[in-house]
Write a structure and sequence with these properties.
CATH architecture of the largest domain: 3-Layer(aba) Sandwich
Largest sheet: 7 strands, mixed
Strand order of the largest sheet: 10-9-8-11-12-13-14
Number of domains: 2
Radius of gyration: 20 Å
Oligomer: single chain
Shape: globular
Number of strands: 14
Distance between the termini: 25 Å
Structural class: alpha/beta
CATH topology of the largest domain: Rossmann fold
Length: 312
């Protein structure tokens, strides 16, 4: 492990520290700061020549600054002659813009993939992409981890009475189906339609039997929680007993926390792929650590072991 170096930008240093503690190595030393003219400066303080290097940086708020920090750090490691550079991006920002669904719009998820590759990344390590096809946007290896096992083990311990797993939309139904299989529970799917580019979705229908059951909603991320509140309202109308929610990425922007606190959901279980500030950790929010999963994946990449074996 002496040849392994792990660095972080300013977006989520607590996660990077937890990962290096899992690995039993010190966090790599570097300077990453912004000049008065808003230009970002990076200086790698450790020797990385011919080393296996990793940069842990989710592309989350402030999104554009996080992305540019990551790109400049990749370039710095490349020019410092690092032998292999892995971008560890627990949350892949811009992942929701993964297809051209309107005239004259970009595919920003593909653009970010190109930027990371050109900047110097030899590999991407990420967690629960918004859409699986984003892996195909890269010409470098992509390892996509999943928090599914972390979440399923948590809810197995709660021993819910007559649970039903509810996919918050059709796009997340495969992941929800896998969670339902692990909990030995039936699956229901919310049919919803998003109108235009507004951060609001109109919930239309519930496909599946939920009456009298304990509902567990599944999504890859919670942003403003507008969709979650709509799903909860639809489930209440159909006679569920209790509602729990889980997701991998707690973006929690805008009115999200206020909406979660005021709705009837019993608990919202998330991971810390993005930082969750203390003022957002209200009583209903449970944050599970993702560092052991990332740390084990980094160890396996560094030593040439199988990533897939982690989930078998």
């Amino acid at each position: 492990m002496d040849e392994l170096k792990v660095f972080t930008g300013n977006t989520h240093p607590a996660l990077a520290q937890a990962v290096t503690e899992y690995l039993g190595i010190p966090l790599g030393k570097c300077e990453v700061f912004e000049f008065s003219n808003e230009n970002i400066f990076v200086r790698i303080l450790d020797n990385v020549r011919q080393r296996d290097t990793f940069i842990i940086q989710p592309i989350c708020s402030p999104v554009n600054k996080s992305l540019v920090e990551l790109l400049i750090m990749l370039d710095a490691l490349k020019r410092a002659s690092a032998e292999h550079i892995t971008a560890v991006v627990p949350y892949y920002g811009y992942g929701r813009t993964d297809k051209k669904d309107q005239p004259r719009v970009p595919i920003t998820a593909r653009l970010v993939a190109d930027l990371l590759t050109v900047a110097g990344a030899n590999r991407l390590l990420t967690v629960d992409l918004h859409a699986a096809q984003i892996q195909g946007f890269f010409n470098i290896p992509v390892d996509e981890l999943t928090a599914l096992y972390l979440l399923s083990n948590y809810f197995k311990g709660k021993d819910l009475d007559s649970p039903v797993v509810v996919a918050t939309d059709i796009g997340i139904s495969k992941r929800a189906r896998d969670l339902a299989a692990k909990l030995n529970a039936p699956l229901a799917i919310m049919e919803k339609r998003r109108v235009g580019n507004v951060d609001q979705a109109d919930t239309l229908n519930v496909i599946g039997e939920v009456e009298g059951k304990v509902a567990l909603t599944v999504d890859d991320e919670i942003d403003t929680a507008g969709s979650l509140v709509g799903v909860i309202s639809a489930l209440e109308e159909r006679g569920v007993k209790e509602i729990y929610a889980c997701c991998t990425h707690p973006v929690f922007s805008g009115p999200a926390i206020k909406r979660i606190a005021s709705c009837s959901v019993r608990e919202v279980v998330v991971t810390d792929t993005v930082p969750v500030a203390d003022d957002k950790r209200v009583g209903k929010i449970t944050v599970l650590p993702i560092a052991p999963l990332l740390g084990e994946a980094i160890h396996r990449i560094h030593t040439g072991l199988s990533i897939g074996a982690m989930f078998e």
